């Protein structure tokens, strides 16, 4: 428990902090929550109340858990020696982490540093647009994105947002971003046997409608995160890869959530054998100990910007101010070392299987659990009002399940303010260090919470 003097902190927060994703009217009747300390999977608030954090910092970030002194030491040692220089120059941790990272990503060779997932995706979109001008006479500017996927909060990233409620009220958006259908078989758009292949074929149909000569890239999450924890069906990714190659379309995989161990592989796409052209990542890269995000590309993409033409506009004319901070790569190096040294990829696979088994048990027990899905320590349970019709449970009731878990000392998440009528999935992403007891506690809390809310 945190024992420092917290007098005045709550009121200072209430008076001056603009919280993320919050309607602040709520704080007229209750205090904002202040998280003051974390160890392992546990965090403590200003009242000394202990919680098991089953969402890794609220947004799928703290992959190696809280309280890692070695990461703190790595940051301190680096920033005292050299804290920052613009990305036009290199740094020791930047070079070392880029080498470590690309070693985990066969076929990928170049790392562009930035400071958030939204910004990393913006960089990728800019590259696609510039390549269109450099190589295709200004054509192939369109970026395809998938319904239910999410790629960030900026106007550019929201232009590629497959979640209507996240994008609402922020338009007009950038042109040439085009949506393709989702691949959630539980909410199937087609009654076919090979659903994964059919969902991928729907992407090709959009390409043909738009004109292949106008489409520069396809941007997808390997597993849809905030849109409902959607694991693509069998055959989907293989067909997606084939379509991209057929029409000379760059494959951009957004690993902001799934990257760096969350699914039991270093990256989610590695479960499927695909070879992307661009990969973006952020949250788990340094487990939230420092701000860092990366856009990683193949050498072929990099070479499109490395020319001898002498044109001052020919290179990638972009900068991320805080992409030059050395704390991020210093933390990321130690984060990756911990994952390897402690066998956390294997643990993620083992504990992920235990979590899915627990959720399957809840599905058998509670009629309101319509579907469970996940990969590694990344799982979702979709709640329904009627299992036969698959009518979604009212999101207010889903929120009550989340609240009931919270009262039991377990913090879980849910899809919210994302997809009209379908904010009905409980979201789980405990740290990769989870034990069997941790997983059982999460499942038991959800079991009790569903019993309390839905009977």
UniProtKB/TrEMBL annotation:
Q: Which cofactor does it need?
A: pyridoxal 5'-phosphate
**Keyword set, alphabetical order:** Aminotransferase, Pyridoxal phosphate, Transferase
The answer to whether the entry has keyword Signal is no
Annotated GO molecular function terms are: pyridoxal phosphate binding; transaminase activity
Looking up CDD domains in the UniProt record yields: OAT_like (cd00610)
Note the PANTHER family from the entry: AMINOTRANSFERASE (PTHR43094), AMINOTRANSFERASE CLASS-III (PTHR43094:SF1)
Q: Which family does it belong to?
A: Belongs to the class-III pyridoxal-phosphate-dependent aminotransferase family.
Q: What's the protein name?
A: Aspartate aminotransferase family protein
Q: Which organism is it from?
A: Pseudooceanicola nanhaiensis
Gene for this chain = yhxA
